Amino acid sequence: MTARQPPPRRIVVSRTDRIGDVVLSLPVAGALRRAYPGAELCFLGRRYVRDVIDACEHVDRFVAWPDEAPSRREAAAIVRAIGADAIVHVFPRERIAWGAWRAGVARRIGTSRRWYHWFACNERVRLSRKRSALHEAELNLRMAAPLLAGREWSIAESHGLYGLTRAAPLPARWSAVIDARRFNLVVSPLTGGTDPAWPLDQWRAFIDALDGERFRVFVAGSAAEGATLRPWLDALPRHATDITGQTLAELMAFIRASDGFVAASTGPLHIAAALGARALGLYPASSTGVPARWRPIGARAELLTAPEGEPAAGGVRHAVAGIAVRDVLRVVERWAASAAER
Q1: Are 143 and 89 within 8 A, CB to CB?
Q2: Which domains does the chain have, with CATH numbers?
Q3: Please, are residues 233 and 239 in contact by the beta-carbon 8 Å criterion?
Q4: Among residues 118, 168, 222, 225, which one has the fewest Cβ atoms lying within 10 Å of its Cβ?
């Protein structure tokens, strides 16, 4: 920010894609809150991420971006109604960029890697996500650099910037299934098809290997994922419970009430890490670059990666199969031992 520009009074953080991407953008809101404690922070995102944004203490207002792409005039009207004087295009969307330009937002910050930002944005950050070795959370924070006096936040520092402190309380019908005598573990087997997933037969072997006297397992996922998993869910042992179909607010509350979370690279995994839960991510080999860019970031987050050079039919998308069941068990047993000591 130059000496001629007053501090912004209302800032928009724009990220209109998947849940995990949005969670890893929350540190931007945390950093802006520290830099401008008196400003109103708005988050522009898809309707289905609203529960996550509502739980973030740094965000004052959520603005829903339509599921169907609006016209340029409609896009400008959406942005104009916010009344912002600064917008950070954390991830570029052409229609939003032109909407902010048409709406007359004073400071319009975007990456220099998109041609339309050279016309629609008046502050551009030189940043290439595809060629960067940085984590997604670091890349997001760098997009806000013009508003942060150029400060760069480390991954360790970003732990304290999530701000997911306003998670709703767990409804009674869900709290009733938590067993205080056992280690309550939440797993999320599916990934929506866009990220490498651990095979269902390995998930089943893992759940079977957990002692039902000491562990209670909860299988999470969307309602659609629950329908897809129905035959598999019905065949699980008695210490496993289906909780698919929860709202995001319910899932966040459930994760907070449970003892641990295991999944491949998914939005719920990043939510668990951001909440400070014990979170284990299952990722392809480090050489793929996926763990470096998308590993879970949290005070108690961990990850396992498939062995280097592990052959994987289907490429990176299926490379998580190289992670052994015994290795996942080892982590979860360690968690349970630590919890029992306390």
Answers
A1: yes
A2: 10-161 (3.40.50.2000), 173-341 (3.40.50.2000)
A3: no
A4: 118
